[in-house]
Design a protein that fits this description.
It comes from Chitinophaga barathri. One of its GO terms (cellular component) is plasma membrane. By secondary structure, the protein is of the alpha+beta class. It has three domains: about 150 residues, no CATH class; about 80 residues, Helix Hairpins (Orthogonal Bundle); about 160 residues, Histidine kinase-like ATPase, C-terminal domain (Heat Shock Protein 90). The chain is built from nine helices and 13 strands. It has a five-stranded mixed β-sheet with strand order 8-10-11-13-12, with helices on one face. The protein has a four-stranded antiparallel β-sheet with strand order 1-6-5-4. A hairpin with a 3-residue loop joins strand 12 and strand 13. Helix 5 runs antiparallel to helix 6 and helix 6 packs parallel to helix 9. It is rod-shaped, with a radius of gyration of 51 Å.
């Protein structure tokens, strides 16, 4: 069942139930009122009958009879009974007509007035004082008015109930459709969005309600999907290009070497060139594999206590192997005196790969000028600082430096694949850290890697 139908059904059931209960109480209270009204009529007639039967001193009986006959409507099957209160053997004597129970007469004498009902015939009795004792006056009649009145009331209530139910169901359908109309619009717009037009967005409107929040949530999801699709497309196209370049060079060198007989030095030079291109290819594939497989939950990685000073020394050794003759220097001036501050939790190999990528870029894009590698630590943070004096990063390129395969606009003359920084960013984020970049064109770049510290004694 659709939500609009559920809303209409629930709204209709609740409202119709309320109207039904209100109609029931109206009918019940009106019925009760009709009893009291008819008993009141009988009471008036009982007092007039008593006054006519036992007129006060100085009054005329005919006057009471005249008033009763001329000004009071004759009730259906009206009967009057007047009899004195008598006792026999200490017990009240009950007259045969109208055949009422003894308790009725006892209540009349005790309370001064009492009512009784037998089917549609109603009785009202009063105790009336007279000379020498008391008399009981009973007036009865058939309440035909009640039946007619209640039948008419039932008919009116039933008609009103049917009309109200129809109006309520119609209103429920209208309001459920009106309330869910933005949802239908969102559904229609989302159905028109596919992988070929992910740039389209859902209209949020000018409201600030839940529907606007839902539309904004869809748009945020579409932003992420569009980014993921673009990243995937860029990944495939750039990976194909980057992998194809060294493969083409290797194949070309092999074909050239086999095209004719050569001396040992020529073969050695060709093999050396192919080995160099193979190393590049291996570096690209390893980086791509890390970039594709790394997650942010760290469940697939081995976590351990890592000393950040030892991490810096390992990075220096790695850079020395990859780029002999580099001018990377470790700055000890900011090292904390307390060794326990230089501790973080993470994966040593991944962190070494991440920091090495930063230092490698610093050496490469500064044309092997001096590069400073420093470490500062507090009770809550470890900060690794890499500073170079290279070409810098243009400000317009800063928002994209962590996008896979993106390269700054001033790096044409340098070899690279646009993989290092995205991989580094993924590793640092996985370690709940952040990377801060401050760069100026032709002056250099300073990159700060901030990682959360950990107390060794607490682990």
């Amino acid at each position: 069942m659709k939500i609009s139908n559920k809303i209409m059904l629930l709204f209709s059931v609740i409202t119709v139930s309320i109207i039904f209960l209100m109609s029931f109480f109206v009918y019940y209270l009106t019925n009760r009122y009709s009893f009291g009204d008819f008993y009141k009529r009988l009471e008036i007639r009982a007092y007039l009958t008593a006054s006519a039967a036992f007129p006060p001193v100085g009054t005329d009986t005919l006057a009471y009879n005249y008033i009763r006959d001329q000004h009071l409507e004759k009730l259906p099957a009206e009967e009057e009974f007047v009899f004195p209160v008598q006792y026999a053997a200490g017990r009240l004597v009950v007259p045969k007509p109208p055949g009422l129970p003894l308790s009725f007469y006892e209540d009349v004498l005790q309370k001064g007035q009492e009512t009784f009902r037998r089917g549609e015939r109603f009785y009202t009795g009063i105790a009336y004082p007279r000379e020498g004792g008391k008399s009981i006056v009973v007036v009865s009649a058939v309440n035909e008015y009640r039946g007619l009145y209640m039948a008419e009331l039932r008919r009116i209530l039933f008609i009103c109930f049917i009309i109200a139910a129809a109006v309520i169901i119609g209103a429920g359908l209208f309001f459920s459709h009106y309330i869910l109309q933005p949802v239908h619009q969102i559904m229609h717009q989302v159905k028109n969005i596919s992988s070929s037009n992910l740039h389209l967005r859902v209209s949020t409107g000018a409201g600030q309600d839940e529907m606007a929040e839902l539309a904004a949530t869809f748009n945020n999801m579409l932003d992420r999907l569009e980014t993921a699709f673009e990243t995937q497309n860029n990944f495939v196209s750039n990976a194909s290009h980057e992998l194809g370049t060294p493969l083409t060079a290797i194949i070309g060198e092999g074909e050239l070497a086999l095209s004719r007989e050569r001396d040992a030095a020529s073969y050695r030079a060709s093999i050396s060139s192919m080995l160099h291109q193979a190393e590049h290819l291996s570096h690209i594939t390893r980086s791509l594999l890390h970039l594709a497989q790394l997650g942010f939950n760290g469940k697939k990685q081995h976590w351990e206590m890592v000393r950040t000073d030892e991490l810096l020394f390992a990075v220096k050794q790695s850079i020395d192997r990859i780029m002999p003759g580099n001018k990377v220097e470790i700055d000890h001036s900011l090292f904390p005196e307390e060794e326990e501050k230089m501790c973080i939790t993470g994966n040593f190999q991944l962190l070494e790969l991440a920091i090495s990528n930063i230092v490698n870029n610093a050496v490469k894009y500064s044309s092997n000028q001096p590069v400073s590698l420093a470490l500062a630590a507090t009770d809550t943070k470890n900060i690794i600082i890499v500073k170079d004096h290279g070409i810098g990063i243009p400000q317009r390129d800063m928002p994209y430096i962590f996008s896979p395969f993106f390269r700054a606009s001033n790096t044409e003359r340098f070899e690279g694949y646009g993989i290092g920084l995205p991989l580094t960013n993924t590793v640092i984020r996985m370690h709940k850290g952040e990377i801060l970049v401050d760069s100026r064109m032709n002056e250099g770049t300073e990159i700060r890697v901030v990682l959360p510290s950990v107390n060794p004694s607490a682990v």
